[in-house]
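> @MW can you paste both from yesterday?
MW: sure, first one:
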Amino acid sequence: MRRATLLLVLLTACGTNAGEEVRITYRRGESLGTFLRALKDSNVIRDERLLRVLVRLGGIERKIRPGLYVFRRGEGIWRVYEKLREGPKVRYFKFVIKEGESLKDFLPRLGRYGYDTSYLLSLAHDSLFLMHLSRKFPFLRGKKTLEGFMYPETYFVDYGASEEEVFIPPLEKFRKVWDSLDVERRSRKVGLSPYEVLILASIVEKEAVLDEEKPIIASVFLNRLKRGMPLAADPTVKYVLKNPPKLLSRRDVGIDSPYNTYRYPGLPPTPICSPTAKSIEAVLEPAKTDYLFFASADGRRHRFARTYREHLRNVRRMRLK
């Protein structure tokens, strides 16, 4: 009874004038103290210690749920306490990974939901984090990056998810697609390892505009690999350039990088984007062709060639348009 009376006195002693809206996320694994300090730093409350006492007296210290909370600057502690007791205003946010995007394309967008994007990018290339994930996702064993494994799709992410947890839904979707395509078994048919299939699929994803052309483009790259020819794929060079131009210059294709498939034969060391199931399937079941070259015909379709002379004619034809 005395505890309830003290709580009532504390609550009624606090003001209720409210101002500008403030959105603050309480993440799983985050300490309550850190969350309450964020309320003070955002000028929602004046005294985090008083709120901590109220939370303890109200018996909700271990019951505050992760998620997005909406407050107002200068809001009375009574209203803040009530909102913490009621739970988060919004549980989920929509996050889209577009086809052909790389980690550096889509991870920064999580910043608008309060995530530390620099930390997310470092996690995506952290060997210890990948080793931890590989217990649940065996296809990550021995990998140095999550590039290519974050499946392009629309996701509804729990606002309370930690930085580590936001990677899970795209990886689970990737696993479903990967297993449904039976990549581990079918990759042998095209003479590639499963990871090499993913790498090549990411290049096909960036080169192709039309799904119907993907098996043909895949056949070109596979034919070049069999002959020991460099892939000479523009997207692999653009992957390492900070501000890649639409058309690469001679200087661009001369850069010293293992991702420069003009300079170094074979596949780049990792995927360069998140490929779709159709791009992966195109590598597993390429068209039967003897093409070695292709050039853009109209920005969407491509002209394919068997010889370099024929390829040059196609390039000239494109430039005359």
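MW: second:
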Amino acid sequence: MADVVNRDRIFTVAHDICVENSAGYRRKFAAVEVSSMELLKHYVAAQERHILFDFDWTCIGPNVEDLDEETLNQMRVPKFNLSFDDQEFKNLRETRNFDAIFLTKVLSLKKDPVQYLRRCKELLRDSGLIVLSEITQHHELALIIHALQGLDFEACDETRVYGKYFSTNQLEDTFEQAGYWVCFKQTDPALITTTYVLKKIPKLAREITKVNLDDVSKFDWVEPLQKTILDHLNEPEHKVIQLTSTRVKSTGILGFDRSLNREYVKTSKFRIVCDFSTKKEYREEETRNIDFDDPEVQKLLQLDMHSNHFRNGEWGSIRDLEIKEGERMALKECEHAFVNTLAYGDVSSVAWVESPNQYLVEALSEGSKQELCSVYYAALNFRDIMLAYGQIPPDAIPGQFADNDCLLGMEFSGRLKSGKRVMGIVSAQALATTVITDSTFLWDVPKHWSLADAATVPVAYLTAYYALIIRGNLQQGDKILIHSGSGGVGQAAIAICLSYDCEVFTTTIILPTPETLVLNNTFRE
């Protein structure tokens, strides 16, 4: 069960929250009453995501002598024998001021869980955290597992489920009585546990200085923020800086916040409150989704957590999670997807990948120049072949594509939401089920054209038009030499020149080939 409960993403997020809400290059964590070395290893393994920090782990409990001494020494984890159930609890000097402690299925063993949690508070620094997992569902399954493991079953309290297990309401009442705030709560139908992050209620209320970062044109907030930071560096811990972004949806506040935390890593002064809504009803300019006078918002901010992100009516925090090897090729039905090579330069790794268009569609507003188009056909161009085979690197493509997941595909044909047949171009990612593009680069498909034909037109004709008309300043009656006239761009150039009544000379392969036959049949004159 340790493997099931602690390798999951829920625990990873809880661990990340503890790291994020601590200060300094060294985080001080403790595993309390661990039932096995495997469980301790899972706790410690989560720190591998945070390579910039060092972690000092300690093992605490009444049965630490049962843990393998050699393994503890290899992991550099000291142990301290400390019983939380004694009549008089005496904490040790070495087991104080932890940033976070971790408990898994411990409370269900305690007759007085409130007293137990109060004693755990003595291990924590002010505002320290507890990551706690308890069985809250599928209690019959938990009983079977206990029986199979040969564990003794002892009922502790008749008000609990089977005298042992808590409901979520009972747990949260227990947390409140013990003097903790619930900062994180997550469960999964496939698990029998619920994971909480609890915060020791600080002695002093937080004094908040707000700095709004919504001005992304003049950046008038930069100097006031610099002064605020300097003023707060030597201030007590309860004086914090709150960075807010509630009106502009793309301020870059997450990256900016990470930079500040790295620069001022020795302090934990920064809190961020921002709106990352994607749905249209939450992205109207006049809509203010975060009302700081709202009692619910005030209650949330009272928790004094580092990250407070609002998205489409819900509060939480945005996290990056590793996709495990077995999940990389997981199949999923979805409306929005694009084609990409999963391994650079390896065309055998070409696969469909879910597209972020599912979120961008929600943000499209009426009257916007951005259009969603369902792709029926997409053309392969020479650039796509070169990219897929790794013969040119992605950064060789002009433009700002550093954050693009995929660069394959430039031209397409399909239908708009209204059903209109269109063809168009995008900077990248046209080999897809849907594209979002500027309506300036969409054209109606003539009735006598098929959509398959239309998909081959935009890039060739735009290239030729740009070269001849925009840059070459082609005039009526000019004489022009076109090399490789049988190619796509060559045929487009010939057609444009003939429409200007120009005299056209072209080069092609002398021997009769399919290409020369196409050229002869297309331009008989």
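> thanks! The domain at 2-200 is CATH 3.40.50.150 (Rossmann fold).
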